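Structure (tokenized):
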């Protein structure tokens, strides 16, 4: 049986095809104006899922990068304080050696003792170095200072340990960004501050301070150990930053390959679709030429 073809059938079929062509052209224009292949999850559910995962990875990577930047600033602050402290302690050692000269008069000894006091004040200031309001030698303590200026008590000890300040710079990479002030400067009567007080007292009393040289060397060794530790951790952070930069570039490239359009290809497709749409309009105008007036004639 031959199906009946009427003008209404042709009209509906033709308008449906025109609407389909127009919709395709509109989709291409949307892609070209937005620069994106996927403007809604319904455009490509699989690609949309991949894009969500990649963006989540980007946010995680960006947070690690911010953590690494903060860690680098902490470690730089600690390293600067340790370097200054070592320099000051070396000066104190030189002064102690000078104080061993039995020919020194009382005035000279007083001058050496006063300079020793100045070195102690400098070390005390370095031990209480802060970064963004946080003491870098007192762990997680919020006391405001790492060492009391009179008793030299260490404020960072909690239940016998110094809780470290750490920053996560990778999925399984946590880096300590502070330094244990008790390990660097000692504490209380065994601190480097108390040692320098004793040396100054011996100088003023006319005694021989060179007996304290071994103790000074012990504190210098402790500082050098911490400098090496900070350097190793700083290098770890720099490596993490380099890795994170590579990771961020890779994620951006992967996301772009899914999300961004090939502009040249879309322009060609749009031009071809426009030609097809104009052709369909021309064909429709010829097919639907008869009107009601034509039949009334």
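Design, position by position:
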């Amino acid at each position: 049986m031959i199906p009946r073809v009427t003008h209404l059938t042709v009209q509906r079929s033709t308008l449906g095809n025109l609407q389909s062509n127009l919709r395709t052209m509109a989709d291409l224009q949307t892609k070209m104006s937005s620069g994106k292949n996927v403007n809604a999850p319904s455009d490509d559910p699989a690609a949309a899922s991949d894009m969500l995962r990649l963006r989540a990875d980007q946010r995680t990577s960006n947070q690690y990068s911010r953590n690494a930047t903060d860690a680098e600033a902490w470690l730089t602050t600690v390293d600067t304080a340790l370097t200054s402290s070592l320099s000051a302690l070396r000066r104190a050692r030189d002064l102690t050696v000078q104080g061993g000269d039995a020919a020194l008069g009382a005035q000279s000894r007083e001058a050496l003792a006063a300079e020793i006091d100045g070195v102690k004040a400098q070390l005390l200031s370095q031990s209480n170095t802060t970064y963004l309001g946080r003491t870098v030698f007192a762990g997680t303590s919020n006391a405001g200072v790492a060492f009391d200026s009179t008793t030299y008590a260490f404020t960072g000890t909690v239940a016998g340990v110094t809780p470290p300040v750490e920053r996560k710079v990778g999925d399984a990479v946590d880096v300590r960004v502070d330094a244990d002030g008790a390990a660097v400067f000692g504490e209380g009567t065994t601190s480097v501050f108390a040692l320098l007080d004793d040396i100054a007292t011996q100088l003023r009393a006319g005694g021989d301070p060179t007996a304290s040289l071994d103790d000074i060397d012990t504190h210098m060794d402790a500082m050098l150990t911490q400098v090496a530790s900070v350097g190793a951790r700083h290098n770890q952070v720099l490596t993490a930053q380099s890795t994170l930069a590579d990771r961020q570039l890779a994620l951006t490239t992967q996301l772009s390959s899914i999300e961004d359009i090939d502009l040249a290809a879309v322009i060609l497709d749009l031009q071809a679709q426009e030609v097809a749409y104009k052709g369909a309009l021309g064909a429709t105008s010829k097919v639907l030429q008869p009107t009601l007036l034509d039949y009334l004639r």
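Reviewer-requested clarification: The chain has eight helices and four strands. Residues 46 and 127 are 56 Å apart (CA to CA).
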